[in-house]
Amino acid sequence: MLRTHQNAFDMESACIAKGGMLPHVFHIKRQTFSSSPHLYGKPLVASGYSATISVWTSLAFVTAAMVSSCNIILEKMSKTAFITGANGISGSAILEYLAQNTTAEDWNSIIVTSRSPFKTTVSDPRIKFIALDFTQDAKALAEQMKDICAPVTHAYFCSYVHKDDFAKLNAANEALFENFLDSLEQVAKSLQNVTLQTGGKYYNVHLQPVPSPAREEEPRRQGPIENFYFPQEDKLASAQKGKSWSWNVIRPEAIVGSTSKPNGMNEALTIAIYLLVCREFGTEAPMPTNQRYWEGTDDVSDSNLIADLTIYTSTNSKCANEAFNITNGDYFTWRYMWPRLADYFNAKASTEQKFTKPLPKEGDVQLENSFLEWSKDKREVWESLCDRQGIASAKQTFDFGTWAFQDWVFQRTWSATLSISKARRYGWKGYVDSYDSFVRTFDKFKQFGLIPK
Ligand SMILES: NC(=O)c1ccc[n+]([C@@H]2O[C@H](COP(=O)([O-])OP(=O)(O)OC[C@H]3O[C@@H](n4cnc5c(N)ncnc54)[C@H](OP(=O)(O)O)[C@@H]3O)[C@@H](O)[C@H]2O)c1
């Protein structure tokens, strides 16, 4: 039993509450607690039984001492992380989090994987990279993983294939996760936790108006199209049944963060490129959306904050076998956020943005103007801006803009937010101001030469 936890009692209640398998040592520990009154007061039973009781009490004492020292050892045992999608916006943030906030005593090794070669700005001797393609079947993957991944204790699945076609998106991502989990279970015999990152789309926030903020305990909504998060989450929970490892699911909103390579969904970078090009033209930079979304309520998820919750839940036994939403902890209105973001880049935008199309009905989709259409003839301007500032490396960033994805987010006419009350109830205290989250991310883009100043 290689599980690390706060204390045995905590672990035991968590196991019972979740209907999970109660490991043998915790049954013993429980007896120990219930026997303890005998140690302090008079025997509670007739004297004929007292010798037997005393033997049991001594045994309980010894057992308690053994379990307790075992727990101390387990708590001190170093963990090994396995982060998939390490080139991506979520996986790279978990890597950065572990590199910046942990020591080799606590996490002795950080194994990262992506399909293509690893590209990172994080430097840490604990990092080991292996390229894996999770479209391969579990047997083939296990063969490649068996040496490097054998010591994995905590696995974080952040791989994702983006396709604008929903049917293809669902099939591809469901298979990716299955292959990952089946192969991992074959090779990682000391596994303690598997965390799967899904997202707000679990609640169908992308398809239709839903009760907002969405809460984890709500029943699933079947939408007009399949949702690949359902089979992914089901696979995780069913694979865990009867095993000693625990699972977690983390569900963010649109992620504000940075990647070293183009990815499928990157809100902050798309906005940054748009605002910089508008500044270059000297024109207004209206938000490509509709009036209802402009005036509605929204939230976003900072990639570093997601990493913080992910590590918290995966290493905290009371969070075992639970799903958690994650957002920054504030709500905002784009009407007031957008001009502030524009201002950061010295681009022109106003809280009084005019819409020529009629106010759409809630539930419809509408765009006053489109990122995708806009982006089609802007590369030249972007490249000349990069040349003028002497950062030729940033020219390729134009390809990082996720224009179709952003249209798809901003065309909605409903406010869809997530509640993070559950994470709070489980003791997590994370928070970041969403404007600060954007600004920090923009600053990082500049620092890494991804965008001009
Ligand atoms: N981005 C967002 O705004 C957002 C918002 C809410 C929820 N989510 C959810 O968060 C999860 C993670 O998404 P993300 O946005 O962090 O992903 P991402 O930035 O697009 O990164 C995806 C990662 O998956 C890897 N990958 C792609 N195909 C692979 C394959 N065949 N085998 C192995 N690895 C492969 C990529 O590797 P290479 O780079 O090497 O190809 C990359 O490292 C997804 O479920 C997504 O829906 C994302």
From TrEMBL:
Organism: Vermiconidia calcicola
Highest rank taxon of the organism: Eukaryota
The protein's name in its UniProt record: Uncharacterized protein
